[in-house]
Specification:
InterPro entries: IS701-like (IPR039365), RNaseH-like_sf (IPR012337). This is Transposase. It comes from Saccharopolyspora erythraea (strain ATCC 11635 / DSM 40517 / JCM 4748 / NBRC 13426 / NCIMB 8594 / NRRL 2338). 57% of the residues lie in helices and 8% in strands. With 98 residues, it is mainly α. It folds into 2 domains: 1-35, no CATH class; 42-92. It has a two-stranded antiparallel sheet.
């Protein structure tokens, strides 16, 4: 069991039930629990941008195809945005090579 207290509201406590080898260090458990928020943000972005939650499939195969296509589109958007930002930084006036 892992408990986390909010910095802004000390009365707010989140609890995590942790499964893993007994010798797992506390720092590793904290790191994994903290990564949950980044993962949830990625899924929320995929829901908003690529319709991850807009499916009306009646079977597993249709659901799986929808989720796969949505996540592939989200991956494409992330890579495209990263490439565009990287290109914008390299062409800034102070970053041009002679």
């Amino acid at each position: 069991m892992l408990a986390r207290r909010s910095i802004t509201d000390p009365t707010e406590i989140a609890y995590y039930v942790c499964y893993g080898p007994a010798e797992t260090p506390l720092t590793e458990l904290v790191r994994v629990a903290g990564s949950r928020w980044a993962i949830e943000e990625c899924f929320q972005t995929a829901k908003n941008e690529t319709g991850l939650d807009h499916y009306q499939a009646r079977g597993y195969t249709a659901w799986y195809r929808h989720i796969t296509l949505s996540m592939a589109a989200a991956t494409f958007l992330v890579i495209t945005r990263h490439t565009a930002q990287k290109g914008a930084h390299s062409t800034a006036p102070g970053n041009r090579s002679p």
